[in-house]
Specification:
Blueprint: E1 26-30, E2 33-37, H1 39-42, E3 47-51, E4 55-61, E5 64-66, H2 77-90, E6 98-99, E7 101-102, E8 109-111, E9 120-121, E10 124-127, E11 133-138, E12 142-148, E13 153-159, H3 161-165, H4 168-180, E14 188-191, E15 201-202, H5 204-213, H6 234-237, E16 250-251, H7 254-264, E17 272-274, H8 289-292, E18 299-305
Parallel strand pairs: 6-11, 7-9, 8-10, 14-17
Antiparallel strand pairs: 1-2, 3-18, 4-5, 10-13, 11-18, 12-13, 12-14, 15-16
């Protein structure tokens, strides 16, 4: 069935930027866990994919048991390993090696032919080999799954603001073209739950970096408008007379920025599917480091090819 969006009781600053187009996603309950999936990917019988949620699992957090899938200071390694086992079972991938990364907000991409002995340092992985479960961990950042139905190749991408600024999504597509002969027009993309433009405030120095890199960057931020209203970006030039002090922060639509990057890399817009759920607005369903701090758990997004 289609997932139902729940509202948050926390007052939020409303963004003037339209959110990225939402996609009807499905919520599947399996082994007591709720998984989010994209129908366009689910209909491929040789593909496994899933986005985790917070409910379920065995990790104790705020008087509840949650499905924390990352090795955090507040949880035990044994809990996380059992949570991962349950998640893989619910996703239909219990027999596959889980390929995680030591993520560090980079543009480092790994081409994998087999499961490495130890996690590689990087923020994206690609493969055309079956039975490798590529995984990305998030707690606000944007998880992106890619699949090439013609060449049968896949990718898992972690895109925070630094990775987005470094064009990790576009560079991953380039790697798929180079190694697998992927035509971007054939790709299907799934953008998973992440912090939304309603809640993701960044410093003006971050906005300035995006403006210097992307022609459409003004549309990513709530403070940038065009028309007859007073100049909303005058704090960038600080030219007299009458300039105002710069705002402390602006709201960034990180999903929209990544969607734009995918389309600019020649993906067809209807093939870019977005789960329009804000991690900070849905604390009962998702984890958010921005909202929960160090006690936040970690979500996991996975994708694999079957023979």
């Amino acid at each position: 069935m289609s997932a139902t969006k729940t509202s948050s009781n926390r007052p939020v600053r409303k963004s003037r930027v339209p959110s990225t187009p939402a996609t009807t996603w499905t919520t599947r309950t399996s082994s007591g866990l709720q998984l989010l999936q994209i129908p366009a990917l689910s209909k491929l019988p040789w593909l496994v994919h899933a986005f985790s949620t917070a409910p379920g699992g065995i990790s104790p957090l705020a008087n509840e048991k949650v499905l924390n899938l990352g090795f955090t200071d507040w949880d035990t390694r044994e809990n996380v390993q059992e949570n991962r086992r349950r998640f893989q079972t619910a996703a239909g991938a219990k027999d596959l090696p889980l390929v995680t990364l030591k993520q560090f907000h980079s543009d480092v991409i790994h081409v994998l032919d087999e499961a490495p002995t130890d996690p590689c340092r990087g923020d994206a992985s690609i493969t055309n080999r079956p039975n490798l479960l590529l995984a990305i961990q998030t707690a606000d950042c944007v998880p992106i799954l890619l699949v090439d139905p013609k060449k049968r190749a896949i990718a898992a991408i972690h895109a925070g603001w630094r990775g987005t600024l470094a064009r990790i999504a576009a560079k991953t597509i380039g790697k798929m073209q180079m190694h697998f002969g992927t035509n971007p027009r054939d790709l299907l993309a799934a953008i998973g739950p992440s912090i939304g433009p309603c809640c993701y405030e960044v410093g003006t120095e971050v906005a300035t970096q995006f403006l210097s890199q992307f022609a459409d960057a003004p549309t990513y931020f709530d403070e940038f408008r065009t028309g007859d209203e007073p100049n909303p970006i005058q704090w960038l030039n600080m030219m007299p007379p009458g300039h105002q002090p710069p705002p402390k922060g602006v709201l960034l639509d990180l999903r929209k920025a990544n969607r734009s990057q995918l389309v600019a890399a020649d993906l067809r817009p209807p093939n870019v599917h977005t789960i329009d759920l804000c991690t900070a607005c849905h604390p009962n369903l998702l984890f958010s480091y921005r909202k929960q701090g160090p006690a936040s758990g970690r979500l996991m997004s996975v994708i694999a090819l079957r023979p």
